[in-house]
Amino acid sequence: MRFVSATPERPETAGEPDIAAPANEPDRPWDSAGPAVGLAVDTLRDAAPPAPRAPGTSVGDDLWATEEVDRETWSPARLVVRARRAAARPNRHAAARARRPRKPRQLRAALAMLVVLALSGTFFAWVTAEPIWLAVGRGDTGTATVAGCVGAGVTQRCRGSFTAEDGRYTTELVRVLGVPGTQTAPGTQVRAQMVNAGSGAAYLDNRTVNTLRWLLGIMLVLLCGLGIVFATGALRLEDRRARRTAAVCGLAAPLLVTVGFLAATY
To answer: Where are the transmembrane segments (predicted)?
Structure first.
């Protein structure tokens, strides 16, 4: 008698059935390397950043929200073109930094112009100091007696004496400035102003003329300062701090001389 075992066959020895894919299921993109990679890259590139959620909506509502994205806006080719245009655009600041430094002034020419401009600024500061004091109200009003005049027009020079209005002092042999051509005869008396008894000039009492005197004088002093800056080549220095320091010193030198003459004529 033969006994038949009822024990089922072990799984590892049993034949594994073939699992066939359904006929109606399309090929999945991850089954092939080429299309899957291309589709994934295109999907990431075409993805748009999420739009801000409107107030009063929940997170679940965003799952059902759809937004139409322009494919051309996020196109890799367009992004590359924009990057190339930005790189090719000239940078003004970089060009300014990369410019070649200018050569300094020649020493002889710079020294010659410096001496001329310094002397000119000193002269303008000297003739402007007293009109400035008269413009701010410091001075004495009185009578100037013309003793004689030479020249005519701009080259006219008059001499005379000045007597203060309150009679405190009388100064002889002073320059009388601003005398009209019709009042140049000796002994003619004109109303004038003088800074103090030690001043060497008496100015005709004319507010408009005196204002023009100190205003033009200050402008000429500033022009001399600018001339010193350009003549010495202060703006040609390579270091920015050195350029600023040299320019400020060139502009301040004539002004400091003017301040010195103001203190001397006070």
So the answer is: 107-127, 214-235, 247-264
